[in-house]
Fold this sequence. Notes:
The complex is a heterodimer.
Chain A: E1 4-13, E2 16-26, E3 31-35, H1 42-50, E4 57-62, H2 71-76, E5 77-80, H3 92-102, H4 108-118, H5 131-144, E6 149-153, H6 161-178, E7 181-185, H7 189-195, E8 198-203, E9 206-212, H8 213-219, E10 220-226, E11 238-244, E12 248-254, E13 265-268, H9 271-283, H10 286-292
Helix pairs in contact in A: 4-5, 5-6
Chain B: H1 14-27, H2 40-47, H3 51-63, E1 67-70, E2 74-77, H4 86-105, H5 110-129
Antiparallel strand pairs in B: 1-2
Amino acid sequence: MNILRAQGLGKRYKRKWALTGCMLEIEPGHVTGLVGPNGAGKSTLLNIASGMLEPTTGTIEVCGGVPGSGPAQLAKVGYVAQNAPVYSGLSVEDHLRLGARLNPGWDDDLAHQRIEQLGLDPRQHAGKLSGGQRAQLALTLGIAKRPELLLLDEPVAALDPLARREFLQGLMAAVAEHGLSVVMSSHLVTDLERVCDQLIVLVDSQVRIAGDVEDLLATHHRLTGPRRDEDSLPADQHVISARHTDRQTSVVVRTDAPILDPVWTVGELSLEDLVLEYMSNSVTTRPALEVLR
Amino acid sequence: MIQLHLDAASGLSPYLQLVRQVRHALRLGLLREGDQLPTVKEVVAELAINPNTVLKAYRELEHDGLVAARPGVGTFVKATLGGAPPTVLGPLRHELARWLVKARAAGLDEESIEALLMSTFRGSAREEIA
Lengths: 293, 130
């Protein structure tokens, strides 16, 4: 069974499509990274999965149900929106009490344990907390709710490196202990490389590629060699990007088969390179679209 | 107990780095039979990495017969990796030293020697897999 399954999912705000033709299948027990440039549709996808937004087209199933369809469904999905929103006028303890009242599966021991481990003063107002502490408080609420799926929108973007590391430590410990599935968006591919085993690259409101991180790394290669036309490559080598100088050609290809042509020097890509190839590839097609307008 | 770490510059996938570190510790005698490896939760909470990465590394070590998982308790070292005895290492080292003298005499500097060694090493490793 999939923890998240989307078919032909799309969302339009007035005249602009924020998400189109999105097909996704995520199995439970994974930490999935959602990457893409600003405005690619990451937040829209997470908002739809949490039930905060209704899709314009297509269907989505999360933990076996329609997002936001009722109390039972809401209990299965945790969502920490962008900038880790907390109520600045309420104390840390108030937040825990609120969590306990609003969530049928609330794990109060877990919540208090985490607050104590983090060294937060329960009487402190959330508005007085540092960015890292606020994010940790929001994460505590998300974890103590004991959801099957936890959605996180840019949870570490505004944090300093130490707070970021501490946040991810807490998140990974929860994944190890409770076996919850996570989908998190982030710009920081180096962080995602450590914590995610699945990756979705979203560009221009479309899913460009999605899959297992190790599979993605194993099937993408950078080929460099004497200049040649990328159309002359074997049909099973899908060209992601190509660059030419007057003497040399460098292409990034995706293929399940080994590269046998001895002309090429075969190099591997880091996850960051791979993501950037998919992201910058779309940049080159953008001017053409503007001409059409 | 050993402490695992990750090196971003190593170019190896996190799971392979963990496997290497445990194997290394076994070879150096830092880990002996019966020793416990850090639990998945401990590694994850320390390194902020995906639990599946640690599980995969431990499964590979288990597959190689080096460790055994006791459900609910942890993962324990089952066998050690003894290094090769000096009688084997000595002659190999001698041969390599002679080769290095030859390489320097041919005008190769440190960097070219290292590059040649590494590319030959990788090439032969690839042939063995194929």
